[in-house]
Design goal:
The chain contains 13 helices and 8 strands. The protein is α/β, with parallel strands linked by helices. The protein has one domain (6-143, 217-293): Alpha/Beta hydrolase fold, catalytic domain (Rossmann fold), CATH 3.40.50. The relative contact order is 0.15.
């Protein structure tokens, strides 16, 4: 199955000079490392890759050593066996990557499903950070009938050998990708849309995203949320049409001491639409938590 190839597809990848490839836990990871200072880890969501941080990473690198991996099966990172693509499996794999990099993040920001991975890692003691920031986090089970039907449907699609090619073929039509981006409630510039087009028109990347969705189960995470070991700030675009802003509000109510920041006029990809604003809220969260740690 065709996957992204660094030699062929990485020539115009955002922040390319920060990229490196690391062997850890039986996987070959694509990781971007930039800046100087305390380590800040960025975790993208399902179907995305390090391109999602193309404008935010340089902002954060003015204060931190930023570490941003492509999740297994996404972007230029190798995929893993399906049993390793559970929420806990990905959390453990990322723990192995951080050990190989000798990186101990003090600050973590996770977007969408990346926020759930961040919380799982912290609860499991794999990420003893001082500051956690959720960016439009997808941390709760899907409500109602969708929650019952979506995981089996994703498992079925991931098991069909032609499904990734079919999705990728559909995505070769640029209008389909434009509609996909608009459906998130966000508006990206042509360069941002082109990067998503490159990803979702690649069968290997689509297969990685489907496999992750097929193995996704956040119910145990919800149960364990009271065991969170670090302060959490929830940043949410009020126009998010992919993950309802109410989800972040519910998590806020579930975790005493958490903070909720709502952004007008921004959707699910708020950190790509307004990277300077997202950076400001990450800086402010860390400054507040840093004072509390003294």
């Amino acid at each position: 199955m065709k996957a992204l190839d660094w030699t062929r597809d990485g020539g115009d990848w955002p922040n390319r000079t920060a990229s490196r490839f690391v062997e850890a836990g039986g996987l070959r990871w694509h990781v971007q490392v930039a800046g100087d200072g305390p380590v800040l880890l960025l975790l993208h969501g399902t179907g995305a890759a390090t391109h999602s941080w193309r404008a935010l990473l340089p902002e954060l690198a003015t204060r931190y050593t930023v570490v941003a991996p492509d999740l297994p099966g996404h972007g230029f990172s190798a995929t893993a066996a399906s049993h390793r693509l559970t929420l806990q499996g990905i959390a453990r794999a990322l723990g192995g990557l951080l050990a190989a990099l000798k990186a101990e993040p003090q600050v973590v920001a996770g977007h969408s499903a990346g926020a759930a991975i961040m919380l799982r890692m912290n609860i499991d003691g794999l990420l003893p950070a001082r500051t956690l920031v959720s960016l439009n986090g997808a941390m709760l089970p899907l409500p109602g009938l969708a929650g019952l039907l979506f995981p089996p449907a994703a498992r079925l699609l991931s098991a069909l050998p032609f499904a990734p090619q079919a999705f990728a073929w559909r995505a070769t039509q640029r209008d389909a990708v434009n509609r996909l981006i608009r459906s998130t409630g966000s508006a990206l510039d042509p360069a941002g849309v082109a990067l998503y087009h490159k990803l979702v028109s690649t069968p290997g990347h689509v297969a990685g995203a489907l496999a992750m969705m097929a193995n996704w189960d956040v119910a145990p995470l919800v149960r364990d949320l009271p065991s969170l070991r670090a302060p959490l700030t929830l940043v949410v675009g009020k126009g998010d049409e992919t993950v309802s802003p109410e989800e972040s509000r519910r998590v806020h109510r579930m975790i005493p001491g958490s903070r909720l920041v709502e952004l007008d006029g921004l959707g699910h990809l708020a950190h790509e639409e307004a990277p300077a604003l997202a950076a400001r809220h990450i800086f402010e969260a860390d400054e507040s938590d840093g004072i509390a740690h003294r």
